[in-house]
Amino acid sequence: MGVLLGLDVGDVRIGVAVSDVLGSGAHPLCTLTRTNRQRDMIAIGDLVSIHEVERIIIGLPISIDGTIGTQAEKVQKFGSRLSKVLDVPVEFIDESFTTSDAEDILNQLEINSKDRRKVIDQISAVIILDEYLRGNTDQ
Question: Which residues, 6 or more positions from 25, have their beta carbon under 8 angstroms from its beta carbon?
Fold first, then answer.
């Protein structure tokens, strides 16, 4: 399967996770603070190069009723730009409830609110990437 990069794209931060080379699991990598489109693309491009990423998986915040809202449109536009800049396939996966799942994990680990902001997006990216890996184990 190769190395995959999972992204939880927000307006302020991008949580990043990476899979192992066998595609058997995802691990938190970093949180990127968004500055501008060009710098965001460069930062992700650097991660793709460093980790020899073969595919990028982006969480798509689909509404509860199954529609694509404003935030999902922003994320799709970001992914489209990313796929044009990098020579790596970009796929989307429904990320419904990943933030609440990440909150649950951090509550179980008793992470305080100050430290929580540093890792919540990474944990969300791990959940996104793990969901993708579970659904694509036959590839």
Answer: 19, 130, 133
Rounded-to-integer distance, Cα 48 and Cα 43, Å: 9
Q: What is the CA angle 32-111-104, rounded to 5?
A: 90
Count of domains in the chain? 1
| Residue 21: band (very low, low, confident or very high) from pLDDT cuts 50, 70, 90 | confident
CATH, residue 74: 3.30.420.140
Q: Who contacts 74 (Cβ-Cβ below 8 Å, separation ≥6)? A: 9, 11
Amino acid at 31: T
Q: Cα(76)–Cα(23) distance, rounded to whole angstroms?
A: 24
Query: What is the distance, to the nearest Å, from the Cα of residue 112 to the centroid of all Cα atoms in its chain?
Result: 23
Q: What predicted TM-score, i.e. pTM, was given to this entire model?
A: 0.85
Separation between Cα atoms, residue 98 and residue 131, nearest integer Å: 10
How far lies 126's CA from each of 8, 56, 102, in Å?
A: 9, 13, 9
Range of the domain at 35: 3-135
Closest CA to 95 of 134, 128, 139: 128
Length of the chain: 139
